[in-house]
Amino acid sequence: MIKVVKFGGSSLASSKQFQKVGDIIRADRSRRFVVPSAPGKRTKTDDKVTDLLYRCYDAVESGQPYGKIFQTIQDRYNSIIEGLGLNLNLDFEFKKIEENFNAKAGRHYAASRGEYLNGIIMANYLGYEFIDAADVIFFDENGNFDSEKTNEELAERLSTMDNAVIPGFYGSLPDGSIHTFSRGGSDITGSIVARAVRADVYENWTDVSGFLVTDPRIVEDPLPIDTITYRELRELSYMGASVLHEDAIFPVRKEGIPIHIMNTNRPQDPGTLIVENTCRKPHYTITGIAGKKGFCSITTEKAMMNAEIGYGRKVLSVFEDLGLSFEHIPSGIDTMTVFIHQDEFVNKEQQVISGIHRAVHPDSIELESDLALIAVVGRGMKSARGTAGRIFSALAHARVNVKMIDQGSSELNIIIGVRNEDFETAVKAIYDIFISASI
Ligand code: ASP
């Protein structure tokens, strides 16, 4: 059995957190490959080391004093080393980093040092071998992740090792310079390592006990989700639910490796298992509810539109030509509506209107702004009758006006459009009808 374990920033924010991580790793010999993030926040008002590194580098680059912030970064690492009682001194590394900052090594390099240094500490603490991610994670010259080259070389490198620490978040470009994933990217590294070693499971340790059915800022104490499929997760994360980096599912998905989200502070909790597929019956018809505010809709109406071949394509090409991507397109007999992100749309609004007039000569074009979209997601919906009906009646009871409803053909999700101000009420009502009412 091989497990790849990734620990997030809050799990590695202090020596006390490192000790919890050490206990977790030592409790199971199959936890052989470890991917650490940089130290995160110890308290709500604390700084993440990654943010400090960006700030420090920006100061160096713009000729501002940077000594204090660089010292704060060093202190963060030194206090971890001291707290763990390690025989390790990073002064040489700090010196090299300062030199490279002054030589303008770039923001990617700067940010990556958070994981790099934490990886060295972790390897020393566990007695595992340290592998610099720059040697095994590759990007192409445009900064796109090179998955096949990485998988080949990483698999080869790790095949003879019992265990190793591979820092998250970064790799290298063909010219050898450092390149990072987008923020939160250590999740991706963990997934890449899991694929390369053909792990049985990719454990992603964080500070929550898995995914919750919905946002705890909207519903008090929502239930955790015990099992979720990749596809359900994708729908929920796209709609704003965040625990894991969106791109982290792709490498493991290729190999059908499950991801287990676990809580470093409560390792006894079951967490959430993300799987390719499962015949475990979901407890509830829905798996999760997520949503986002800030959409607008553009509705075109034209008598006999349904008979006009190419109408939809012509309308959508207006959006395409303006570089706008759409979210949903519910349509009626003589109407077609396009949902789009409001902040992208505002500056191009008039071009869209004139473009549509030119393209299809509609009878009217109507705009509506400040809309929210809610995704109700669940593999259980396929076999349950009346899901849409239950959503509608719950929303009617809560006096929420439904502006749009769109059921994906996978029957995995139902998307509902409501006004921004009804968003929270709507999410609560849906949660209550499917979850609270069935507990
Ligand atoms: N340290 C990086 C960040 O703060 C990457 C990560 O933690 O996954 O975004």
UniProtKB/TrEMBL annotation:
Alphabetized GO MF terms: aspartate kinase activity; ATP binding
* Natural source organism: [Clostridium] aminophilum
Q: Which GO terms describe its biological process?
A: diaminopimelate biosynthetic process; homoserine biosynthetic process; lysine biosynthetic process via diaminopimelate; threonine biosynthetic process
Sequence similarity: Belongs to the aspartokinase family.
Membrane-crossing residue ranges in chain numbering: none
- The EC class name is transferase
The pathway noted for it is: Amino-acid biosynthesis; L-methionine biosynthesis via de novo pathway; L-homoserine from L-aspartate: step 1/3; Amino-acid biosynthesis; L-lysine biosynthesis via DAP pathway; (S)-tetrahydrodipicolinate from L-aspartate: step 1/4; Amino-acid biosynthesis; L-threonine biosynthesis; L-threonine from L-aspartate: step 1/5
| Official protein name in the record | Aspartokinase
Q: GO CC annotation: what is one? A: cytosol
The UniProt annotation places substrate binding at 50, 115
Q: Pfam families, per this entry? A: AA_kinase, ACT_9
Name the job this protein performs.
Catalyzes the phosphorylation of the beta-carboxyl group of aspartic acid with ATP to yield 4-phospho-L-aspartate, which is involved in the branched biosynthetic pathway leading to the biosynthesis of amino acids threonine, isoleucine and methionine.
Domain ACT, which positions? 376-439
Keyword set for this entry?
Amino-acid biosynthesis, ATP-binding, Diaminopimelate biosynthesis, Kinase, Lysine biosynthesis, Nucleotide-binding, Transferase
For this protein, what is the EC number? Answer: 2.7.2.4
